[in-house]
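Interim report to the steering committee. The following record documents the input for Quinone oxidoreductase PIG3 (396 residues).
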Amino acid sequence: MYTSQKSCRHLKVDELLASPDCCDCFDNQMQRLLNTGIFLLGNPYQKAWFKCYSSFSNMMRAVCVDVPGGPENLLLRHIPRPQPKNGEVLIKVHATALNRADLLQRRGLYPPPPGESDIIGLEVAGTVESLGPAVKGGWKPDDRVMALLCGGGYAEYVAVPEEVLMPVPPKLTLCQAAAIPETWLTAFQLLVFIAQMKEGEVVLIHAGASGVGTAAVQLVRLFGAVPIVTAGSQEKLKLAEELGAAAGFNYKEKSFAQGVHDFTGGKGANIILDCIGGGNWEQNVSCLAMDGRWVLYGVMGGKTVQGDLLGRLLSKRGHLLSSLLRSRSLQYKSELVTAFSHRVLPYFSDKATSLRPVIDSMFSLEDVARAHQHMEANKNMGKIIVNVIPPNEQMQ
């Protein structure tokens, strides 16, 4: 376990060298030892200095969770830096972004897939630090990249399979790029891979001002369909409409199902992107078009359903589809990243379409607990960014 600062203050040199990663204040210890000139006393100490420096250079800061719970349980520590394996690229993380899954993992309700990092964080943007063996993609050090992760994003470095790596569009900063991988790939997957959206269809997007929502609105427009949204405030509806939503309904004020019927002339929505779940099922089925596709990717409104769901869905010949991205195979993610890179990524640099990640706010890595509190308050519009490197020091 990690040693407290109080107990590690008087560690001897050999103790420090034996377990540098067990101490939160390892870097302070290094500075103290260097300032005393202890390593200049003779050859044994010179060797110790090289060993100590080498150990420290292989460390990184990362956000850890010892005990599941609230944002106060997020702890910033020094841990060993990952080493890239076959086909992996080591990224120096400049920024990461929050997702609802992060809050669930912090509470102990959404563990990472077996064998993956237990550090929270599903997306990053940064620069290539080094390449593992057998990397084939032509990546080189200092390339600006962004990546979809199974975990490990709340850290200074992360090793990822090259299949989930994407170049950062030229006109985006690394802060903006950090808002793309998980959110935009999720929206693209739901619309294209799962719902198989067609031109001209009406797509109802719940939480239209969320990260996935703001991405979905823009993607629906890009592919020639019609986005309509729900949100809990006029400010959020205004943002969605600025991004291209044809209509918006405040679910706190009136029935969104009635709004969808009015907008479509009673035909209903061809596709519903739903991150709410149980609490919305009756209105969802009510406003679903005949042969429509209801795509479930979250259960923020509850997991249980009371009532005649199956009978009413059957009467609409409706399709109930569900999808998660984190637990998908590397092959699936590789195909998703490739399709997204070809069909969507160029439009972030195209003035005519002007796709853009929507950023709500930015926090430092030291303030990650406040970032979680901000998301839990449900006030964010777009993505919450955590800067691992201050923006003014990032490679733009």
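The domain at 58-179+344-393 is CATH 3.90.180.10 (Quinone Oxidoreductase; Chain A, domain 1). The committee is asked to note this result when reviewing the revised timeline.
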